[in-house]
Amino acid sequence: MSETKPKTIFEKIWDAHVVKHADGYPDALFIDRHFIHEVTSPQAFDGLKKRSLQVFNTKRTTATADHNVPTKDQHLPIKEALSRHQVETLRKNCKEFGIELYDLGHPYQGIVHIIGPELGLTLPGMTIVCGDSHTSTHGAFGNIAFGIGTSEVEQVLATQCILQYKPKTMKIEINGALGKGVVSKDIILYIISKISASGATGFFVEYAGDAIRNLSMEARMTICNMSIEMGARGGLIAPDETTFDYIKGRKFAPQGEAFDKSVSEWKKLVSDSGAEYDQVLKFDAADIAPMITYGTNPGMGMKVTDRIPTTEEMKEISEQTSFKKSLEYMGVEPGSRLLGKAIDYVFIGSCTNARIEDLRAVASMVKGKKKAENVEVWVVPGSKQVQEQARKEGLDKIFEAAGFELRDSGCSACLGMNEDKIPAGKYCISTSNRNFEGRQGPKSRTFLASPLSAAAAAITGKVTDVRDLIPDPSPKEKGEETVWAKK
Amino acid sequence: MKDKFTVLKSTAVPISAENIDTDQIIPARFLKATTREGFGDNLFRDWRYDLIPGPSPKEKGVETPNKEFVLNNPIYGGKILVAGKNFGCGSSREHAAWAIYDYGFRVVVSSFFADIFKNNALNNAVLPVVVSDVFLKNLLETIQKNPSTEITVDLMNQEISYGNESQKFEINAYKRECLINGYDDIDYLLSLNKEIREFDVAHS
Ligand code: SF4
After folding, report:
1. ipTM of the prediction
2. Predicted TM-score (pTM) of this structure
3. DSSP 3-state assignment of A190?
């Protein structure tokens, strides 16, 4: 045979999962791993019951309760009736259909996108879906992972497939060394601020370049997590030794010989040289600084030392209107600086930044220091395992001494659906992924930033350039290996 | 298996507002339900009812139907909703499509639909019909003048018509086939059961 057309890693994985392709029809794509949670699954199970269908392969679906759960006194029944009902419905459905559930109180419970990787359920080369847009997180392992709607959750439960048209591909390359105090959250906030909250709509992104290669797995997850915030269907990073090291020994990962065999397969998951992308973007890591958002979509971000644009700097008239409305909501002035602005809350959590390395980074900043009087600080671990590990390492003591509140795991103040809400009009520096109006609670105001920047703000009580607080080289992104979830 | 859709002849309800987002179609506080049914009662909830707040934040307010809103006006009715440009923008919640279906609508006519809403509608046996701005404007005016105007939506010929007016509309060929046969994505995927089983076994 003559040589075949070079393929991107995305195309390799996609093509390997097409069960049926017919012209004019969407592809029937096989799904290796399906995650479900209490909010987007009840109607899907309801649909199965109406059609008298079973779950196609129960081994490929894993459930947890995360969105609606309290992060205080998790052992007590959920107070809010509707939330309790959703969690109970999940319990009932998982039992009836035979699906593994990591319920409240289970040592593996946590935010769905945090537990998949930490349990070794998320692996290179897979197709992964979940009824939640931040499913893109899993792409850090070199797989195709994306969020789906409830009808699609039903499709996957019933048939282990979904119908999809192949998206376009985009490569985003970041090369060079990161400066002091700059971490992976800053990289992704920087990219989104450059290409806007809709800049990758219709694309599936591959992140590449040495700045990405040098990141730890957890840092890579932060980047892939926010792919959706620039409109992308998902984002992935080709697997490498860092990936294999992370996976090795995890609970549900292949073990022993099977692992070695898998690794040799996973090594083929790279884009061929000469593979074509529909779009390629390049950025210089040296230009990235600690970032912060000032508006009400994640594209409205800037270097923490910059000033907010003026209304006149917006090109389109329609843009100007929504820009003004956004800044009014945030209570900030066009053209002003955020540096030094007093804040009320600091939220360290969410599927973007609630892994152990994030908590370690925060602890390294605040060790021996105290939070400012004017702020309330919540540290919400992404999973029970992260929470346990933080305790083992004594991070809980550091947080306690600093006046931070370490809570139980869950989505918490990322989305204001559970009890954790930022009060109306209050400012919160948040390590989560969305700064939409009302996202953290009705009329709440969100500044998105990295865990390091959030920790710095917790100490000073205001928007702070984290670099002023770290005299020496920044804490390394590539932390020591996390061995705690291994069995 | 959903309802089959070939030709629908019905009167219509006109809502001329543009940029109706999914938060208006179904407000967020109704998202905690666990079935697809019953959302029709909450379709356009905050437009259908005026809320008179209680004397203190703790006490519930009283909802009274807003007589001005078309859904509360008995002269309008039917299985077709005709709405202003950019219908269904905002959050991707599928509940918006469920609410429209549950209320009894089978077609939404507008001059532009948000992408995700369009997909969600098609997945839930609601046909989004895209017409030109001019056609939409005339249609809205005609219904407002004469609420008993019958509109024909012919999916076989991809044509919408009323009185002497008519216009062709576009629809993805696969989705059209699904609607005509009363299939949805699950039915199509179930028909591939054998191939999927083999794939599953080969990849475990
Ligand atoms: S942490 Fe936030 S973004 Fe992540 S899954 Fe939960 S609600 Fe969604």
Report:
1. 0.86
2. 0.89
3. helix
